[in-house]
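Hey, quick one: can you model this chain's 3D structure?
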Amino acid sequence: MRPLRKAFTLIELLVVIAIIAILIGLLLPAIQKVRESASRAQSANNLKQIALAFQNYENAMGEMPHNGTWNNTQWDFGPGLGDWSHALPSPINAVGCTWAIKILPYIEQDMLLNKYSYTVPIKTYLDPGRPSGTGLTQTQWDGGADDTIYQAGQVTDYAANSMVIGSGIMTDSPGNYSPTWSGPVSGWADLFHRKLISIEDGTSNTIVVGSKGMATQVYKQRGCTKTGGNYTLSNGATLGCNDDPITDPGPALMGTLRSIGPDDTWWASGTGVTVAGNRFKLANGWESWFFFCFEVVQDKPDLDSWNRWGSPYSGSAPLAMCDGSVRNVSYTTSNAVVLALSTPNGGEPAQDP
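Sure thing. Here's the predicted structure for all 353 residues.
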């Protein structure tokens, strides 16, 4: 007689498959949580490196790196391609470039500043928790002295606090700036010469650089330079990406800065409401939404990221203080606290939110 063969019945097999599926379902959230935790830790490390680079820049240059001026100009005619308004980033015109270009030597990117390339992504400027593609804008530099010099290049997931570093074109009076020439290397007359020692609210209570909020649609079109700086909303309308490349100082572009105020952007200043720690008041009509936009938000579809900090992570976003420490600031933090963390001399040092 042939012996009977033992085997799983169909029901038993289905039960095993179901158990395996349940186990996988239980494991996936844990794996995703571990991945998010690792990405958040790397993002915090990037921010710490950038914050320390700001400190080292101040030690070497005697002031913090401001965000430059239109077209990278420092009124030193002839750098780059020979056209002062279309000059490649370089050591000679770095004073007119963004903070992200100024600090390259302090994040071990000396060679990039000395011989600028638009095709080399900067890992320190990219948050591992957010898809960044190539780490570059869609627009490429065409090799000529034209606007592609400022539309192409590296993108950054991090922005500096404009209320702390300002731009090369500082507010001179309500609604105006001073374009007075003051020499070939110093740029506009009223540079934002911020020193760490001048931060009266305390370096541990003031943001210097942080993760910026971003609409998830922007993940696939970083820089948004091919679409005029806008992305398409779910309803077909368009909204600003606020993801300008580090090659464009603006000044006061939302791709490289957050927490913009009336002292550092003249077009925001006027005779309206007072902002703590600012010499100039807001322009009339701004008060209805200005304070509201001091938020920390999580990335999501259709997000208006204008002037807002944020991240792809759940619960909170990492922000670096002027002393080099990094905090995870909750998305439920009030606008008043975010504003207090942004102003260096507002007389309202914010505690841990």
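One thing worth noting: Residues 76-82, 181-189 have pLDDT under 50 and may be disordered.
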